[in-house]
Amino acid sequence: MVDIDMDIVQVKKTSEEKKTSEEKKTSDENKTNADPFPGEAPVSNKRKEKFERGKKVDTSKIKDRKLKGWLNKYEEKYDSSVKQAARFEVLNTEEAGFLETEEGEESWKIEQSEICKAVDITSASKHFELNLEQFGPYKMDYTRNGRHLLLGGKRGHVVAVEWMSKELMCEINVMEAVNGVQWLHSENMFAVAQRKYTYIYDNQGIEIHCLKALNETISMDFLPYHFLLVTGNKRSFLQYLDISVGKIISTTNTKTGPLNVMAHNPYNAVVCLGHTNGHVTMWSPNQKEALVKMPCHEKAAVLSMAVDSGGRYLATAGADRKMRIFDVRTYKALHTYKLRSPATKLCFSQRRVLAAACQNVVEVFKDPCTQLQTDPYLRHETRRGVTDIGFCPYEDVLGVGRQDGFVSLLVPGAGEPNYDGFESNPYRNKKQRREWEVKALLEKIQPDLITLDPTQLSKVDRVTAKQLGQDKIKRLGYTPEEPKFVPRNRMKGKNKAGHMERRKNIDIEKKRRQQVKEKVEAKRQKVEEVPAAKPSQNNGSKKDVEKKKEAKPVKKVQAKPVSKPEVQQTTEDKSEEKPVKYSALGRFKN
Fold this sequence. Notes:
Layout: H1 2-33, H2 45-49, H3 65-88, H4 112-118, H5 121-124, E1 129-131, E2 138-142, E3 149-153, E4 157-162, E5 167-173, E6 178-183, E7 189-194, E8 198-202, E9 207-211, E10 217-223, E11 228-233, E12 237-242, E13 247-253, E14 261-264, E15 271-274, E16 279-283, E17 292-295, E18 302-307, E19 313-318, E20 322-327, E21 332-338, E22 345-348, E23 353-358, E24 361-366, E25 378-381, E26 386-391, E27 397-402, E28 405-410, H6 430-442, H7 462-476, H8 497-538, H9 542-551
Antiparallel strand pairs: 1-28, 2-3, 3-4, 4-5, 6-7, 7-8, 8-9, 10-11, 11-12, 12-13, 14-15, 15-16, 16-17, 18-19, 19-20, 20-21, 22-23, 23-24, 24-25, 26-27, 27-28
């Protein structure tokens, strides 16, 4: 029996040794396979600043626990989204680039033919030229995703092209003058400002609407998040049309002459207008007067202007051959450039590259807002005069409308290299476009929310709340009684009937004390007003009162018995006459 027990003990020891050896092996394997950098990848504050939108909400002073908890959860979600966006920036496949020159070489001397030879075949195919001498000069516009191009000739020629694949969508002649063309929310609809009215066409060139209310239009713009078509006509009327419902939201007479120069701020959707007196005004559909009036050019008309994609900088060009950069936040001029000739068109790219059209020359400046540039970045000269320019979104391409056609120029570093598929997808199909259109309509921003400072929408206007209360009293004709005190539910153990009754009594006692204080204050004010009012009834000083009493005999007056001796006054003893003293007892004299 002893031998058998010893064998069992040895078997147990061997099994335990095997287990321990296996556990050691697994632990060693886990150590080798363990992540050397556990947890989420750290993100620097500089990388997060690029994706932050606004300041964090301070919840330390909020007393409502539910509201405080809801805001804290919302801030946590917002912080996680900012961190994820900063982390996923590494996965972007494209990077922005500019022309790199050698020592002593200037970039503005490089021609388009040299750039086409240096780039790949697909990029070189984006440089092309259309000779349309019969129906010029031409206006142009790109869609938000940069996929489609719209051209409109002054003599009625309208063309819609998918310019990357060079496929013609539609080509029509409206048989009257065309003042401007504008894509709407998608490539399925576009607006044409003709000689008398404004018309809406589809991508097949079929007329959908004739907007007779928008007559004599000479400038157009579109607010994509509000679905508003903004037009300015020869008689200085600024009009807003909601294309989702087909109604005119606002019509304002600016009283500043023809509205040839128009641009909108993408940050707050405020429309900017340039005038012949050198001023720039900013407008909203909610007000009939200008929000801001900026004197930009002295004794010179504003010929063109543009606002960058961030809504921070405003570029204006006047007839005095000057181009100025303004900070929209402070309305102060930052830089001034002297051009060879007046710039008739200005345009900002997504990466703050500014293009200026001066007669038949197009000059491109690289970031002229933050740094003062001595020379242009690129320069291109055309055969005929330039009538319109525009950067293509998400492409390093600048479209130039001329008097005899259209030219597509390559501008390295102008476009945003990485697009947001939820915002505008250049490669979306028909189904994706439909889904995006429905979502955009559901998220449409109302025109009432267009203000200079969009952050005011999240604040409480306390002055307006007081005014609303006063208006309610005027409307009712009496001050409504306050609702009865209803104690709210408390935590467990504090919601008993006795506790609730005690809270009710405390509230009632506070109201009683307030009423008593008001009554005492009213009585005190009455007592103070009585002595001050009696001298004013005599209409004179004390000397005048004495003279009157000398002229007329004063009757003996007996007052009620008081502690003080009675005072008698006659006209015989004038030498012993004393000035009359008024007291509170004068009210009780007969």
